[in-house]
Amino acid sequence: MAEKLTDEAIEHGSNSEPLKGAERAEAIKKLHAEMIPIEARQANLAEERRQLRHTFKAATGIALADFDAERRVCMIEDDDERKGKMADRLAVYEALRPGEQSELFAE
């Protein structure tokens, strides 16, 4: 598991002298080794997510883009912001729905 940064490691930023030689090679190897299990977990989670989304779409027929858009709005914590986003989306829908003359485009 990755180690928490120490104060010394945090201070070793872009303004300090970079590692060289064997120390640099060791840091590269260490990061590579630590990234392997993280990337494996990410790949497993991505596959699990893909399967869940595929199952959902097959079961509901709802486009994933539509689900994602609404989910993002629903996850907004601030009530006023969420209501504002919903009102904006409704205004766009009403303006662009087929068979309706939009006031946005009226001359």
General description of the model:
With 107 residues, the protein is mainly alpha-helical. It contains four helices and no strands. The termini are far apart.
The overall strand count is 0
> What structural class do helix, strand and pairing data support?
mainly alpha
H/E element sequence: HHHH
Q: Count the DSSP helices.
A: 4
The profile of the biggest β sheet is: none
Rg computed from alpha carbons, rounded to a whole number of angstroms? 25 Å
Write a short abstract of this structure.
With 107 residues, the protein is mostly helical. It has helices at 7-11, 21-60, 64-74, 79-96.
Secondary structure layout:
Blueprint: H1 7-11, H2 21-60, H3 64-74, H4 79-96
Which properties best describe this structure?
mainly alpha, 0% strand, elongated
